[in-house]
Amino acid sequence: MSMKTIQIQVNGQSSSQQVAPRTHLGDFLRDQLQLTGTHLGCEHGVCGACTVLVDGAPVRSCITYAVACDGQSVTTIEGYGQDPVMKRLRDAFTVHHALQCGYCTPGMLASARDIVLRLPEADEERVRIELAGNICRCTGYMGIVAAIMSVLRDLSQNPDAEVNLLRGGKHGPQTSERSATIQSERFEGFSAQNSGRVAESQQVVTDAALVTAVSKVTGTKVDGFFEVPCSADDVWTLMTDLRRVASCLPGAQVDEMSGAEVTGSVAVKFGPMSASFKGRAMLELDSQNRSAVLRGSGQDALSQSRATGDVLYRVQSLDQSHTKVFVELTYVLQGPLAQFSRSGLVQEFVRRMIADFGRNVAGIIQDPDRQRAPSAAAINPLAVFASILWSRIKRLFGGK
What CDD domains would the database entry show (predicted)? Predict the structure, then answer.
Protein backbone atom coordinates (compact mmCIF):
# COMPACT_ATOMS: atom_id res chain seq x y z
CA MET A 1 0.00 0.00 0.00
CA SER A 2 1.36 3.42 -0.94
CA MET A 3 2.29 5.71 1.92
CA LYS A 4 1.52 9.39 2.26
CA THR A 5 3.53 12.00 4.10
CA ILE A 6 1.56 14.25 6.43
CA GLN A 7 2.55 17.30 8.41
CA ILE A 8 0.81 17.15 11.77
CA GLN A 9 1.16 18.84 15.12
CA VAL A 10 0.53 16.54 18.07
CA ASN A 11 0.49 17.94 21.59
CA GLY A 12 2.31 21.05 20.45
CA GLN A 13 5.07 19.16 18.61
CA SER A 14 5.26 19.41 14.80
CA SER A 15 6.00 16.16 13.03
CA SER A 16 6.34 14.80 9.50
CA GLN A 17 5.10 11.22 9.28
CA GLN A 18 4.42 8.64 6.63
CA VAL A 19 1.11 6.86 7.02
CA ALA A 20 -1.01 4.49 4.98
CA PRO A 21 -4.14 6.18 3.60
CA ARG A 22 -6.44 3.85 5.57
CA THR A 23 -4.67 4.24 8.93
CA HIS A 24 -7.00 5.58 11.53
CA LEU A 25 -5.90 8.46 13.73
CA GLY A 26 -6.19 6.35 16.88
CA ASP A 27 -3.88 3.64 15.51
CA PHE A 28 -1.48 6.30 14.23
CA LEU A 29 -1.27 7.94 17.65
CA ARG A 30 -0.81 4.67 19.51
CA ASP A 31 1.39 2.69 17.12
CA GLN A 32 3.53 5.30 15.40
CA LEU A 33 3.76 8.01 18.05
CA GLN A 34 3.49 5.70 21.09
CA LEU A 35 0.80 7.92 22.67
CA THR A 36 -1.10 5.05 24.26
CA GLY A 37 -3.23 7.26 26.49
CA THR A 38 -5.76 7.32 23.64
CA HIS A 39 -7.86 4.19 24.18
CA LEU A 40 -9.64 2.23 21.45
CA GLY A 41 -12.91 0.63 22.50
CA CYS A 42 -15.67 -0.17 20.03
CA GLU A 43 -13.70 1.10 16.98
CA HIS A 44 -17.02 2.14 15.45
CA GLY A 45 -17.24 5.70 16.79
CA VAL A 46 -19.86 4.76 19.38
CA CYS A 47 -18.24 4.48 22.81
CA GLY A 48 -16.20 7.71 22.80
CA ALA A 49 -13.15 6.24 24.57
CA CYS A 50 -10.88 7.29 21.69
CA THR A 51 -11.99 10.93 21.63
CA VAL A 52 -9.18 13.44 21.04
CA LEU A 53 -9.10 17.09 20.02
CA VAL A 54 -8.44 18.05 16.40
CA ASP A 55 -7.96 21.80 16.06
CA GLY A 56 -9.60 22.14 19.48
CA ALA A 57 -12.76 20.15 18.69
CA PRO A 58 -13.45 16.59 19.93
CA VAL A 59 -13.37 13.86 17.28
CA ARG A 60 -13.49 10.06 17.30
CA SER A 61 -9.97 8.96 16.46
CA CYS A 62 -11.08 5.40 15.64
CA ILE A 63 -13.09 6.54 12.59
CA THR A 64 -10.92 9.51 11.56
CA TYR A 65 -8.18 8.87 9.02
CA ALA A 66 -4.76 10.16 9.96
CA VAL A 67 -4.28 11.58 6.45
CA ALA A 68 -7.39 13.71 7.01
CA CYS A 69 -5.52 15.49 9.80
CA ASP A 70 -2.72 16.68 7.50
CA GLY A 71 -1.84 20.24 8.50
CA GLN A 72 -3.99 20.10 11.65
CA SER A 73 -3.30 20.12 15.39
CA VAL A 74 -4.15 17.10 17.51
CA THR A 75 -4.29 17.03 21.31
CA THR A 76 -4.37 13.76 23.26
CA ILE A 77 -4.63 13.08 26.99
CA GLU A 78 -0.84 13.36 27.24
CA GLY A 79 -0.85 16.90 25.85
CA TYR A 80 -3.18 18.95 28.02
CA GLY A 81 -0.36 20.00 30.33
CA GLN A 82 -1.37 23.24 32.03
CA ASP A 83 -4.60 23.66 30.09
CA PRO A 84 -6.74 25.72 32.54
CA VAL A 85 -9.94 23.80 31.87
CA MET A 86 -8.35 20.37 32.03
CA LYS A 87 -6.59 21.23 35.28
CA ARG A 88 -9.97 22.01 36.85
CA LEU A 89 -11.53 18.88 35.39
CA ARG A 90 -8.74 16.61 36.63
CA ASP A 91 -9.16 17.94 40.16
CA ALA A 92 -12.96 17.67 39.97
CA PHE A 93 -12.83 14.10 38.63
CA THR A 94 -10.67 13.17 41.62
CA VAL A 95 -12.86 14.88 44.22
CA HIS A 96 -16.14 13.47 42.86
CA HIS A 97 -14.85 9.91 42.27
CA ALA A 98 -15.59 10.29 38.55
CA LEU A 99 -13.23 7.56 37.37
CA GLN A 100 -12.77 3.91 38.20
CA CYS A 101 -11.02 1.64 35.69
CA GLY A 102 -9.94 4.72 33.71
CA TYR A 103 -10.48 3.26 30.25
CA CYS A 104 -13.11 5.80 29.19
CA THR A 105 -11.48 8.69 31.07
CA PRO A 106 -9.26 10.18 28.31
CA GLY A 107 -12.20 10.48 25.95
CA MET A 108 -14.52 11.55 28.76
CA LEU A 109 -12.18 14.39 29.71
CA ALA A 110 -11.96 15.58 26.10
CA SER A 111 -15.76 15.72 25.87
CA ALA A 112 -16.02 17.34 29.31
CA ARG A 113 -13.58 20.06 28.27
CA ASP A 114 -15.70 20.76 25.20
CA ILE A 115 -18.84 21.03 27.36
CA VAL A 116 -17.22 23.47 29.78
CA LEU A 117 -15.99 25.70 26.96
CA ARG A 118 -18.99 25.52 24.65
CA LEU A 119 -21.86 25.42 27.14
CA PRO A 120 -21.01 27.62 30.15
CA GLU A 121 -24.69 27.77 31.20
CA ALA A 122 -25.40 24.04 30.84
CA ASP A 123 -27.56 22.41 33.50
CA GLU A 124 -27.34 18.78 34.60
CA GLU A 125 -29.81 17.55 31.97
CA ARG A 126 -27.84 19.23 29.19
CA VAL A 127 -24.56 17.79 30.47
CA ARG A 128 -26.05 14.31 30.45
CA ILE A 129 -27.24 14.78 26.87
CA GLU A 130 -23.82 15.99 25.78
CA LEU A 131 -22.18 12.96 27.43
CA ALA A 132 -24.48 10.52 25.62
CA GLY A 133 -21.68 9.76 23.16
CA ASN A 134 -19.24 8.67 25.88
CA ILE A 135 -19.94 5.27 27.38
CA CYS A 136 -18.66 4.34 30.82
CA ARG A 137 -19.24 0.80 32.07
CA CYS A 138 -18.18 1.46 35.67
CA THR A 139 -19.32 4.68 37.27
CA GLY A 140 -23.02 5.20 36.56
CA TYR A 141 -22.07 8.72 35.35
CA MET A 142 -23.21 10.52 38.51
CA GLY A 143 -19.68 11.33 39.61
CA ILE A 144 -18.75 12.44 36.09
CA VAL A 145 -21.77 14.72 35.82
CA ALA A 146 -21.14 16.11 39.31
CA ALA A 147 -17.51 16.87 38.42
CA ILE A 148 -18.44 18.77 35.27
CA MET A 149 -21.23 20.66 37.04
CA SER A 150 -18.83 21.67 39.83
CA VAL A 151 -16.40 23.14 37.26
CA LEU A 152 -19.22 25.01 35.52
CA ARG A 153 -20.48 26.42 38.83
CA ASP A 154 -17.00 27.45 39.92
CA LEU A 155 -16.31 29.23 36.63
CA SER A 156 -19.68 30.97 36.85
CA GLN A 157 -18.94 32.26 40.35
CA ASN A 158 -15.22 32.86 39.80
CA PRO A 159 -14.53 33.72 36.13
CA ASP A 160 -11.11 32.71 34.84
CA ALA A 161 -9.43 34.96 32.25
CA GLU A 162 -7.62 32.02 30.60
CA VAL A 163 -10.82 30.00 30.29
CA ASN A 164 -12.71 33.01 28.93
CA LEU A 165 -9.97 33.44 26.33
CA LEU A 166 -10.49 29.83 25.21
CA ARG A 167 -14.25 30.33 25.15
CA GLY A 168 -13.79 33.37 22.94
CA GLY A 169 -11.87 31.34 20.35
CA LYS A 170 -13.18 28.21 18.67
CA HIS A 171 -15.52 27.64 21.60
CA GLY A 172 -17.19 31.04 21.57
CA PRO A 173 -20.91 31.86 21.35
CA GLN A 174 -22.92 29.28 19.44
CA THR A 175 -23.36 31.04 16.13
CA SER A 176 -21.62 28.55 13.85
CA GLU A 177 -23.29 26.03 11.54
CA ARG A 178 -22.15 23.27 13.93
CA SER A 179 -23.87 24.87 16.91
CA ALA A 180 -27.01 25.51 14.91
CA THR A 181 -27.16 21.80 14.13
CA ILE A 182 -26.75 21.00 17.83
CA GLN A 183 -29.57 23.37 18.76
CA SER A 184 -31.92 21.88 16.16
CA GLU A 185 -31.40 18.24 17.17
CA ARG A 186 -33.80 16.75 19.66
CA PHE A 187 -32.77 14.24 22.30
CA GLU A 188 -34.71 12.32 24.88
CA GLY A 189 -32.59 13.04 27.92
CA PHE A 190 -32.44 11.53 31.37
CA SER A 191 -34.42 12.87 34.28
CA ALA A 192 -32.18 14.15 37.05
CA GLN A 193 -34.59 12.88 39.70
CA ASN A 194 -34.18 9.80 41.88
CA SER A 195 -35.17 6.50 40.37
CA GLY A 196 -38.56 5.05 41.21
CA ARG A 197 -37.01 2.28 43.27
CA VAL A 198 -35.23 4.75 45.53
CA ALA A 199 -38.34 6.89 45.90
CA GLU A 200 -40.42 3.84 46.74
CA SER A 201 -37.98 2.77 49.42
CA GLN A 202 -38.45 6.12 51.14
CA GLN A 203 -42.19 5.64 51.71
CA VAL A 204 -43.11 5.48 55.39
CA VAL A 205 -44.90 2.34 56.57
CA THR A 206 -46.63 2.89 59.89
CA ASP A 207 -48.72 -0.27 60.20
CA ALA A 208 -46.78 -2.82 62.26
CA ALA A 209 -48.83 -5.56 60.63
CA LEU A 210 -46.99 -4.89 57.37
CA VAL A 211 -43.65 -5.92 58.85
CA THR A 212 -42.36 -9.08 57.21
CA ALA A 213 -39.08 -10.96 57.24
CA VAL A 214 -38.59 -10.26 53.53
CA SER A 215 -36.55 -7.31 52.31
CA LYS A 216 -38.20 -4.87 49.94
CA VAL A 217 -34.84 -4.02 48.42
CA THR A 218 -33.37 -6.22 45.70
CA GLY A 219 -29.61 -6.07 45.89
CA THR A 220 -26.54 -7.47 47.64
CA LYS A 221 -27.27 -9.44 50.81
CA VAL A 222 -24.96 -9.93 53.77
CA ASP A 223 -26.07 -11.80 56.86
CA GLY A 224 -24.57 -12.49 60.23
CA PHE A 225 -25.31 -12.63 63.92
CA PHE A 226 -23.94 -11.56 67.25
CA GLU A 227 -24.42 -12.68 70.82
CA VAL A 228 -24.67 -10.40 73.83
CA PRO A 229 -24.55 -11.26 77.55
CA CYS A 230 -27.96 -9.67 78.17
CA SER A 231 -31.51 -10.88 78.43
CA ALA A 232 -33.69 -11.01 75.32
CA ASP A 233 -36.16 -8.59 76.93
CA ASP A 234 -33.44 -5.98 77.46
CA VAL A 235 -32.12 -6.41 73.93
CA TRP A 236 -35.58 -6.16 72.38
CA THR A 237 -36.39 -3.08 74.46
CA LEU A 238 -33.30 -1.40 73.05
CA MET A 239 -34.11 -2.54 69.51
CA THR A 240 -37.52 -0.86 69.66
CA ASP A 241 -35.95 2.52 70.48
CA LEU A 242 -34.86 4.00 67.18
CA ARG A 243 -32.52 6.57 68.69
CA ARG A 244 -30.72 3.93 70.74
CA VAL A 245 -30.55 1.58 67.73
CA ALA A 246 -28.96 4.36 65.67
CA SER A 247 -26.51 5.10 68.47
CA CYS A 248 -25.24 1.52 68.24
CA LEU A 249 -24.34 1.84 64.56
CA PRO A 250 -20.72 3.02 64.09
CA GLY A 251 -20.59 6.41 62.38
CA ALA A 252 -24.33 7.09 62.72
CA GLN A 253 -25.67 10.49 63.69
CA VAL A 254 -29.32 11.28 64.41
CA ASP A 255 -30.50 14.75 63.39
CA GLU A 256 -34.27 14.55 63.82
CA MET A 257 -36.80 12.00 65.01
CA SER A 258 -40.54 11.73 64.50
CA GLY A 259 -42.15 8.59 65.86
CA ALA A 260 -40.51 5.61 64.20
CA GLU A 261 -38.80 7.74 61.55
CA VAL A 262 -35.32 9.21 61.85
CA THR A 263 -33.32 11.64 59.73
CA GLY A 264 -29.56 11.66 59.95
CA SER A 265 -26.36 10.38 58.42
CA VAL A 266 -24.02 7.39 58.47
CA ALA A 267 -20.30 7.94 57.86
CA VAL A 268 -18.13 5.09 56.61
CA LYS A 269 -14.41 4.88 55.94
CA PHE A 270 -12.66 2.20 53.97
CA GLY A 271 -8.96 2.92 53.67
CA PRO A 272 -8.65 6.14 51.66
CA MET A 273 -12.34 6.06 50.69
CA SER A 274 -14.87 7.86 52.86
CA ALA A 275 -18.51 8.77 52.45
CA SER A 276 -21.30 10.25 54.54
CA PHE A 277 -24.77 9.15 53.50
CA LYS A 278 -27.46 11.60 54.62
CA GLY A 279 -31.04 10.41 54.47
CA ARG A 280 -33.80 8.91 56.52
CA ALA A 281 -34.84 5.56 57.92
CA MET A 282 -38.00 3.96 59.28
CA LEU A 283 -38.21 1.27 61.94
CA GLU A 284 -40.94 -1.35 61.49
CA LEU A 285 -41.61 -3.68 64.43
CA ASP A 286 -43.08 -7.13 64.89
CA SER A 287 -43.13 -7.38 68.68
CA GLN A 288 -44.79 -10.78 68.73
CA ASN A 289 -41.85 -12.40 66.93
CA ARG A 290 -39.23 -9.98 68.28
CA SER A 291 -38.18 -9.02 64.77
CA ALA A 292 -37.81 -5.67 63.06
CA VAL A 293 -36.79 -4.03 59.81
CA LEU A 294 -34.89 -0.77 59.58
CA ARG A 295 -35.47 0.63 56.08
CA GLY A 296 -33.43 3.56 54.89
CA SER A 297 -31.97 5.45 51.97
CA GLY A 298 -29.49 8.26 51.62
CA GLN A 299 -27.02 10.04 49.39
CA ASP A 300 -23.37 10.97 49.70
CA ALA A 301 -22.99 14.68 48.92
CA LEU A 302 -19.45 14.36 47.61
CA SER A 303 -19.67 11.40 45.23
CA GLN A 304 -23.45 11.69 44.60
CA SER A 305 -23.67 7.96 45.29
CA ARG A 306 -27.02 6.71 46.57
CA ALA A 307 -27.59 3.90 49.02
CA THR A 308 -30.83 2.07 49.73
CA GLY A 309 -30.99 -0.70 52.26
CA ASP A 310 -33.01 -2.83 54.66
CA VAL A 311 -31.58 -4.12 57.93
CA LEU A 312 -33.60 -7.08 59.19
CA TYR A 313 -32.92 -8.37 62.68
CA ARG A 314 -34.47 -10.98 64.95
CA VAL A 315 -33.85 -11.41 68.67
CA GLN A 316 -33.59 -14.97 70.04
CA SER A 317 -33.19 -15.86 73.69
CA LEU A 318 -30.46 -18.38 74.46
CA ASP A 319 -30.98 -18.32 78.22
CA GLN A 320 -31.92 -15.78 80.86
CA SER A 321 -28.73 -13.80 80.42
CA HIS A 322 -27.65 -14.50 76.83
CA THR A 323 -29.24 -13.46 73.56
CA LYS A 324 -28.45 -14.03 69.91
CA VAL A 325 -29.40 -11.42 67.32
CA PHE A 326 -29.62 -12.46 63.67
CA VAL A 327 -28.97 -9.64 61.19
CA GLU A 328 -29.51 -9.53 57.43
CA LEU A 329 -28.53 -6.47 55.40
CA THR A 330 -29.78 -6.02 51.85
CA TYR A 331 -28.43 -2.96 50.07
CA VAL A 332 -28.10 -1.27 46.70
CA LEU A 333 -25.36 1.24 45.87
CA GLN A 334 -25.71 3.53 42.88
CA GLY A 335 -23.04 5.86 41.58
CA PRO A 336 -19.24 5.97 41.85
CA LEU A 337 -19.16 3.89 45.03
CA ALA A 338 -21.23 1.10 43.45
CA GLN A 339 -18.00 -0.69 42.46
CA PHE A 340 -17.57 -1.77 46.09
CA SER A 341 -20.98 -3.45 46.31
CA ARG A 342 -19.77 -6.33 44.13
CA SER A 343 -16.61 -7.14 46.05
CA GLY A 344 -15.92 -9.50 48.91
CA LEU A 345 -14.16 -6.63 50.64
CA VAL A 346 -17.35 -4.68 51.24
CA GLN A 347 -19.16 -7.79 52.46
CA GLU A 348 -16.41 -8.40 55.00
CA PHE A 349 -16.62 -4.73 55.89
CA VAL A 350 -20.38 -5.08 56.56
CA ARG A 351 -19.82 -8.18 58.69
CA ARG A 352 -17.35 -6.25 60.78
CA MET A 353 -19.90 -3.48 61.18
CA ILE A 354 -22.44 -6.08 62.37
CA ALA A 355 -19.92 -7.27 64.96
CA ASP A 356 -19.29 -3.68 66.07
CA PHE A 357 -23.04 -3.13 66.23
CA GLY A 358 -23.37 -6.12 68.57
CA ARG A 359 -20.63 -4.86 70.88
CA ASN A 360 -22.30 -1.46 71.03
CA VAL A 361 -25.69 -3.02 71.83
CA ALA A 362 -24.15 -4.86 74.78
CA GLY A 363 -22.27 -1.74 75.86
CA ILE A 364 -25.37 0.48 75.90
CA ILE A 365 -27.46 -2.10 77.79
CA GLN A 366 -24.74 -2.53 80.38
CA ASP A 367 -24.08 1.24 80.54
CA PRO A 368 -27.45 3.01 80.03
CA ASP A 369 -25.84 6.45 80.46
CA ARG A 370 -23.79 5.98 77.31
CA GLN A 371 -25.20 8.43 74.76
CA ARG A 372 -22.70 9.16 72.02
CA ALA A 373 -22.55 6.99 68.91
CA PRO A 374 -19.11 5.57 68.07
CA SER A 375 -17.25 7.39 65.32
CA ALA A 376 -16.67 5.80 61.93
CA ALA A 377 -13.37 4.03 62.30
CA ALA A 378 -11.26 3.59 59.18
CA ILE A 379 -11.06 0.01 57.95
CA ASN A 380 -7.65 -1.25 56.80
CA PRO A 381 -8.26 -2.86 53.36
CA LEU A 382 -5.19 -5.08 53.76
CA ALA A 383 -6.47 -6.44 57.05
CA VAL A 384 -9.88 -7.09 55.50
CA PHE A 385 -8.29 -8.83 52.52
CA ALA A 386 -6.20 -11.01 54.83
CA SER A 387 -9.35 -11.89 56.78
CA ILE A 388 -11.16 -12.91 53.59
CA LEU A 389 -8.20 -14.97 52.39
CA TRP A 390 -7.91 -16.77 55.73
CA SER A 391 -11.64 -17.55 55.87
CA ARG A 392 -11.51 -19.03 52.36
CA ILE A 393 -8.49 -21.15 53.24
CA LYS A 394 -10.34 -22.51 56.28
CA ARG A 395 -13.43 -23.31 54.17
CA LEU A 396 -11.20 -25.04 51.61
CA PHE A 397 -9.93 -27.41 54.29
CA GLY A 398 -13.32 -27.94 55.88
CA GLY A 399 -13.04 -25.34 58.62
CA LYS A 400 -15.97 -23.26 59.78
Answer: fer2 (cd00207), SRPBCC_5 (cd07823)
